[in-house]
Amino acid sequence: MNDSTRNPELHVYEEQRNDFIDVATGFGVFFAILLVIGIIATAASLMMK
User: Fold this and answer.
1) Which of 12, 27, 41, 42 has the fewest other C-beta atoms within 10 Å?
2) TM segments (predicted)?
3) CA distances from 45 to 34, 35, 36 (A)
4) pTM score over 0.85
5) How far is 11 from 39, CA to CA, in rounded Å?
6) Can you give the chain as a three-state secondary structure string?
């Protein structure tokens, strides 16, 4: 049996991933979307007065 399939240290990743950058980008995009929604909602509420 091939032992390389059971040893995680021998696994070679197909692409290098930076989890911190992935999470930071996700938070940044989510924050930007919520900010735009907040600005639109504020503008709409001010125009209704």
Assistant:
1) 12
2) 20-46
3) 16, 15, 14
4) no
5) 47
6) CCHHHCCHHHCCCCCCCCHHHHHHHHHHHHHHHHHHHHHHHHHHHHHHC
